[in-house]
Design goal:
By secondary structure, the chain is mainly beta. It has a domain of 542 residues: Maltoporin, Chain A. It is built from eight helices and 44 strands. Its main location: membrane.
Length: 816
């Protein structure tokens, strides 16, 4: 209701202008018409697409000055300042893009107009509108079926993402076709790539299995990022943002433009800092991006390097539900039964804090990690029908997280007790550092052929991971006769990953195209040494997966089409599944059968997509509450589970200066049969196991409803107002479907106000105000649950990650 009231106020306040027509024709430099070229007046929503004769018409244009933008794939974007004080008729000739090698870098792993899968594209302009310092997931959060969360509560630091209920370990992420997912955990840690959004040209999010790509299996979605392309002209840009919780971002970027129409270089330095919404959840993030390349008529060579260094105070523990929703008695039960609060300082911290509670108190309870990426790309066009591309890559990661541990037993660290005089001490407070030291490198390639009705791509890649895990005791309350930084555990992981795919689209008729995509992927994983719980580990596995995909598209008319596809994906277990397996019984791999069917429509003033998806899992891995011999949680395969849903997305220009849009996901996410494991600790010698079986239960973190509504108003040239609302339905913290273990549904409203123009000799002055959570909603977007029995009585604790209430970011951008 608040959304529509605000939208009504916006519409009522619109001004009336004299209106004119801007029309014209779009061709290439040889006079060939460019059918479908996009023509629009920047920051107005007034747009059209060139028809079969290359003609376009922009209706009802108020008198004013505008930036006219014309774009077409394979051609340089045309921009011209025009003044409308009457009807205009223009002839526009686009130049072929000398940097089309950039497109080749991601072509092999992306979906196109005739690819029968479900996807969303986001342009650099859309990214720039919201890029004020928050991580990339928060910029993407309004795309369909997406739910994001932040440990610190305000989108800076550690952030998470789920698409169709699948978390980051099931989402394949690539940058210029190079894998980004961690080889062992399969996760993506956006905090290691601070301000990467400032160097992203465009993003494609494929939902479901999607098309074949490099790296980790796409079990919920694929996020394909393409970095910035060379600018036609040189520029320098300075971006600064400030906001709530002492959040600030400083970015400096330089771009040479095309030098002699052949060379281009770009660089960026960024710093982001924030105190965070959660107590002590500070972030200190630094990053850089550099690229340089040669752009010949047929050959492109480009080097890219980017790196990030993050120091974040840990806010991983969450806030007990008793603190958010309970009373003093509930808190006392947490203290008495949970076992986490052993000192008076910890108890006082819990009782005196508000919803921004942070469990950690030690001033260096931080995560300190640096990751550097290096990419070298080569593409060559042999003819109008055939081109190839290849890339080499290397990623270096090194860092640790530091922990203060209370009253730890020496025996748990493989250490002898300490004797002081006549006393023997069996435990001590300690400070630990747990390190990751890893290398990831490999190569990718593709060969692309397109002639007549056939488009064929053959591609793949080989990647190798070499990572060390070790822990150090850097301080102990009671000194021992040991070396400084003595390692109390040390192990390594080695993983090779090879994939080869062939995908083709063939036009059977002018309107009907068929698609096929076959991929073979092999994995060899080994981990060996001593784990942090002092267990020797020597495990791993070899896997060979065949992932077929096929489907078709049918063009209803020039603006709309139907599509359908069927795809199979396979996914190996993650590191913890191997290491924590009880008695060495590693779970089996997972398989996903994915059916997508939908409709897409695009006109000059409206767009609509509608699709239905069926994601049928075999042996999906889920947490059951089961523990191994040392108390680590282990995942188990559930034979049958599925996700069935409908996704709707679209937008329309309802008035000359007002656009509305949104998306809606309705879904069922079920496990056919699930067995929960609960332990009764009243038995000293052995844990008594209680098993509870559930049928047709909901998959955790999978809301049945996700919805977004947006309205964008351009009252005058250069000024825009965006109103955005996001609704996420109830989510369960585990797979029991128990309402007492869930995250309540929430709706959050955001406002973005932007103004830009050229003045004072600057190419661009941009001012952006973003108000997040406009109505101050208190909500949580993530959490976890755990519990146990004692003499048959259940103790269950939910921990949540509260998100920030009303907060703002204000940005100033200057382009020289």
């Amino acid at each position: 209701m608040k959304f529509w009231v605000t939208a009504l106020i916006v519409m009522m306040s619109m001004h009336v202008y004299a209106q004119h027509v801007v029309s014209g024709n779009v061709t290439d430099q040889r006079g060939n018409t460019l059918v479908g070229a996009n023509v629009y007046l920047q920051n107005t929503g007034i747009a059209d697409a060139a028809d079969i004769d290359g003609n376009f018409t922009l209706q009802k244009v108020p008198a004013d000055q505008y930036t006219l933008v014309v774009s077409f794939v394979g051609y340089s974007t045309y921009r011209e300042q025009i003044e409308v004080d009457g009807d205009l008729d223009l002839d526009i000739a686009l130049q072929e893009n000398v940097i089309k090698g950039e497109e080749v870098m991601v072509y092999a792993t992306r979906a196109g107009d005739k690819t029968p899968t479900t996807y969303t594209n986001m342009s650099s302009e859309e990214i720039e509108d919201r890029n004020l310092g928050q991580d990339l997931p928060f910029i993407l959060k309004y795309t369909p079926s997406m739910v994001v969360n932040s440990d610190a509560g305000n989108g800076v630091g550690y952030t998470g993402i789920r698409i169709r209920g699948s978390d980051a370990t099931r989402i394949n992420v690539t940058v210029n076709g190079i894998p980004i997912n961690d080889s062992e955990s399969h996760g993506v840690f956006w905090v290691n790539m601070p301000d990467f959004s400032s160097s992203v040209n465009n993003v494609q999010v494929q939902r479901g299995v999607g098309t074949s790509t490099n790296g980790a299996a796409a079990f919920g979605a694929t996020i394909n990022l393409q970095t910035d392309m060379p600018a036609q002209e040189a520029f320098a840009q300075v971006d600064n943002s400030i906001g709530s919780y002492n959040t600030r971002k400083h970015t400096v970027e330089v771009n040479t433009g095309l030098i002699n129409n052949r060379w281009a270089f770009q660089g960026r330095l960024s710093q982001i800092a924030s105190d965070g919404y959660i107590d002590r959840a500070e972030s200190d993030l630094k990053s850089y991006y550099l690229s340089g390349g040669y752009y010949g008529d047929k050959t492109t060579v480009k080097a890219v390097t980017f790196a990030g260094h993050e120091v974040t105070y840990q806010s991983w523990y969450g806030t007990p539900g008793a603190k958010l929703f309970g009373d003093e008695e509930d808190l006392d039960e947490v203290i008495a039964m949970g076992g986490e609060y052993s000192t008076q300082e910890q108890i006082d911290n819990l009782k005196n804090a508000d919803r921004r509670f942070n469990y950690y108190l030690y001033d260096r309870e931080v995560d300190d990690y640096q990751q550097s990426h290096y990419q070298l790309h080569l593409s060559h066009t042999f003819s109008q029908t055939f081109n190839v591309s290849g890339a080499l890559h290397y990623t270096r990661g090194l860092g640790y997280f530091e922990q203060y541990k209370y009253d730890e037993d020496y025996a748990d660290y493989g250490l002898e007790n300490v004797t002081i005089g006549d006393s023997t001490l069996e435990s001590s407070d300690m400070i630990l550092r747990r390190w990751l030291d890893n290398h990831f490198y490999g190569a990718t390639f593709s060969a692309n052929y397109q002639s007549g009705p056939l488009a064929l791509t053959i591609g793949g890649g080989y990647n190798y991971y070499d990572g060390d895990h070790f822990g150090e005791i850097i301080w102990s309350q009671y000194a021992r006769d040991t070396d400084i930084r003595e390692r109390y555990y040390d192990n390594y992981g080695r993983k090779s990953d090879f994939n080869l795919f062939a995908k083709a689209t063939y036009d059977l008729t002018d309107r009907l195209s068929v698609f096929g995509d076959l991929q073979v992927r092999t994995i060899d994983y080994t981990t060996k040494g001593v784990d942090n719980d002092q267990r020797p580990i020597d495990t791993g596995g070899d896997f060979v997966f065949f992932n077929p995909k096929f489907g078709g598209t049918f063009e209803l008319n020039e603006r709309s089409e139907l599509y359908a596809s069927y795809a199979v994906g396979n996914r190996e277990p993650v590191r913890n599944d191997f290491v924590d397996a009880s008695n060495g019984q590693t779970p089996t791999h997972e398989t996903l059968h994915n059916l997508e069917a939908g409709y897409r429509m695009q006109t000059a003033t409206s767009s609509l997509s509608a699709n239905i998806y069926w994601m049928d899992y075999e042996n999906q891995l889920v947490l059951t509450g089961a523990l191994n011999d040392v108390g680590s949680g282990i995942r188990a395969n559930v034979p049958n589970s599925y996700r069935l849903g409908v996704e709707l997305a679209g937008g329309v220009q309802v008035l000359e200066k007002l656009e509305v849009g949104g998306n809606l996901t309705l879904s069922r996410n079920k496990i056919d049969e699930f067995t929960e494991v609960v332990y009764d600790y009243a038995y000293e010698d052995d844990r008594y196991v209680v098993e509870n079986t559930y049928s047709d239960t909901d998959i955790s973190f999978s809301p049945n409803v996700i919805a977004t509504a947006t309205a964008t108003w351009h009252p005058v040239n250069g000024l825009s107002f965006q109103y955005l609302a996001k609704h996420v339905g109830q989510q369960y913290l585990d797979n029991t479907g128990n309402d007492d273990r869930s995250i309540a549904a929430y709706t959050v409203h955001d406002v973005v106000i932007g103004y830009e123009r050229s003045a004072w000799g600057l190419k661009r002055i941009g001012l952006t105000l973003m108000i997040n959570n406009l109505y101050g909603k208190e909500y949580s977007a993530n959490g976890y649950t755990w519990g146990y029995l004692y003499e048959g009585s259940l103790y269950q604790q939910n921990n949540y990650y509260p998100q920030a209430t009303r907060n703002f970011l204000l940005g100033l951008s200057l382009k020289f």
